[in-house]
Amino acid sequence: MSFFQSTTAELAPGSKSRRRAAGGRGTRSGPLAVVVLSILIAAFSLLPLGYVVVMTGNAGWATIQKLVFRPRVGELLFNTLALVLITVPICVVLGIAGAWLVERTRLRGNKAWAVLLAAPLAIPAFVNSYAWVSAIPSLGGVWGGVLVSTLSYFPLVYIPVAAVLSRMDPALEQSGASLGLGPWQVFFRVVLPQLRLAAAGGALLVSLHLLAEYGAFAMMQFDTFTTAIYDQFRSTFNGAAANMLASVLVLFCLLLLLGESKTRGNARYARLGGGAQANPKRLALGWYQVPGQLFLAALSVLALGVPLFHVVRWLIAGGAAIWTGSALVHALLQTLGYGLAGALMTTVLAFPLAYLVIRHPGPVTKVLEGVNYISSSMPGIVVALALVTITVHNVPAVYQTAVVLVAAYALLFMPRALVNLRAGLAQAPKELDEAAQALGKAPLVAFVKVTLRLSAPAAAGGAALVFLGIVNELTATLLLAPNGTTTLATEFWAFSSEIDYAGAAPYALLMILLSTPMTYLLFAQSKKAAGQ
Amino acid sequence: MTPTIRRAAKAPTAKPAFIPDPGHVTDHLLVSGARKSFGGTEVLKGVDLTVAQGRTTAIVGASGSGKTTLLRLIAGFEAADAGTISLAGVEVAGPAAWVPAHKRSVGYVAQDGALFPHLSVGQNIEFGLPVRGRAAAARVGELLEMVSMDPSYARRRPSQLSGGQQQRVALARALARRPQLMLLDEPFSALDAGLRVATRRTVSQTLSDAGVTTILVTHDQAEALSFADQVAVMRDGKLAQIGSPFVVYTRPSDRATAEFLGDAVILEAWMEGSLALCSLGGIPVRRPPVQGRVHLMLRPEQIRITEGGSIRGRVVDTDYFGPETTVRIQLAPIAVDPGKPVDPHQPVGGEVINIRHWNAMLARPGTELSLKVVGEGVVFPWSE
After folding, report:
1. Rounded to two decimals, what is the model's pTM?
2. Predicted-assembly ipTM surpassing the 0.90 threshold
3. Cα separation of A16 and B80, whole Å?
4. What is the CATH number of domain B27-105+179-250?
5. Is B69–A1 a contact, with Cβ atoms under 8 angstroms apart?
């Protein structure tokens, strides 16, 4: 019975009970207000994609031919594809190798390595690029892009894979061994297939980041679709050309999503059956301890050592002069302000959908979730382009105001809030709300005292991750920030664009400092989430 | 059902105020014609139920039969599509009335206890109390003692309690507001066997001491029979039978109910007057609904292995369970009186039946046994 209540949610026209349901009583498709709100938020999140589709549709075939089929686009296509096709496999190999060493072998100091391998996420890719370019000024081209983005993004594979490995049921490996497989065969035939989902999810994230990244590649003058769209927009405000490039970029994103969902299929690798789960057995490394340690040390030096060394080098070179003036304080305060406002708004906007997903799953909810999944994979440059054009033409009153920038942040970082809120609401089952009502609390009071209270920690975690995203966001902020608004990222960008590497260093340091605790939070959360 | 049905007053928002009426038992809960569908599936198909003041009723049925839905309608977590629900004479749900869950004065204990994980045991119990501070603390201690727990447990977190303790805290929390009606939704099913019996006894004792009208939903027929004064058997969205545990067990209204409530021996039989002729001879039946071809139902414990019994059977095989053994016995065909004309539809008998016996040594396969039947049988109209 409760199965029906929770799974056959749908919007049916008003029978007597349905009309009552709208008034806050028992209901399956969710309170009408929440459903309507979720649909509005989903529609809002479709703005960038809708913008690209409409613009491409309006351009006409002749324009598309002229703007898309030309050597410049071919060059961008080659750069972008080469970048993705080379970087993603390297990230997957590094991520899995690192995770396996840390989680499944008796590697000395594996607790410390576990944190160090996730830590590069605290360094924005464009700061990493800045460090590498100041170390090797000639760095550029596809291989420069591959080097910097690999070092910045391999933790996106490492973190989910490590989480799955640490939770994987050792009984499966023991079964493999009892069926006559050697340790290597167990790894390739039992362990690796179970990592497929986590690795594919990580690879998707890396690919989307590669498509969306602007600063890191612009720093070394390596052209991808995103940098080209930005330049096109800045130099000419030429809508059509930028839009066409954006629609090719969006097409890439959609293809990636499709590819990832094909890999995923209906696969499910949750552990079947109950019973206590033993801790995974760790492999003794013997003499392999040495190459294992050397490998992780090299990876950490390249991904953490180089950027930190160069930031510190420039800080020392800059001396006291780079700390003077109010610009730094101004940018810090603005960044904190936008970070807080954006985190709050994103969490609030994500709440209705998260609530429906957990409490009233069904066809409507599924569609809304799918919409969010697609729209959230839109690169920052596309979101910014769409919001600039739409506000200029349709709502000039808000053009270049803080409202639009915060809206862009909400569009970009909604999934971080959503994932966390979902996990939090899952900790607050409907039965607890009902128990509170049976104890004499009105539905709204019960909701606040139980559901909101129980999901608050997860909501705060999600908000923190949104905050982290905003602190390090460059592309959309550059295009959308109101006049006079500077953030740590944009100021860093302004200094480093003028090759004032010393002047940029304090901003890089602040961004890294702000990101560090939240990267740790992300890392800790992934460990928990893998168990669910 | 007692004849003292009070007319439901049309006072939708009035707080149900029940004044106990000493002298005779009053109906506390009255459900009539309750229907409920989910997504085109009718889960409740017109349910009528009356529960007397201070009594305990068990709603028992297989999973999916609609019993939890009925409980949720009574609690006010769902609204029925049709029908009315009255508590202590006040209509709380119906075409013209709606009292929301938090104003119904109904206690509710869910399957897993549904304790608030962010609150301590004491705070959980205080949750619904109108008072705070020292008065609340005193009441918490009192309630914990009521469910046989030490007041020191008030400071613990729900996660530090065993399953049985969590259920008892959930009951204490539900009792805190002195509800008129307590609804228990399979509260013992998540507990392991030993704990289940002990927890059930504590809960049952607590509720009867407090004099609270109680409805227990369960899929466990033994639990229903032992816990309640009145058992309502739910099947396919309807109440198939309502009665005392003894009546529903020994005189089930149909075959499905008979088989749901416990092991049943079903034999082909021929009803003549008040005797059912079957492989076990002539079994007396009280008020048979039909004559001629019928199914006869006996409980296994009504069939005894005795020296010199009139019925012969041969042991097929046995299942040993320790204190008792299930013995499968091949019966002889129905003995017919050679002087009497035989109806062509008359059953031939010769079934294999399962009975229980304490002595495993007695029943080796192939042994010939003599049996006797105690008590009456129940017959159901023939169906293929």
Report:
1. 0.76
2. no
3. 9
4. 3.40.50.300
5. yes
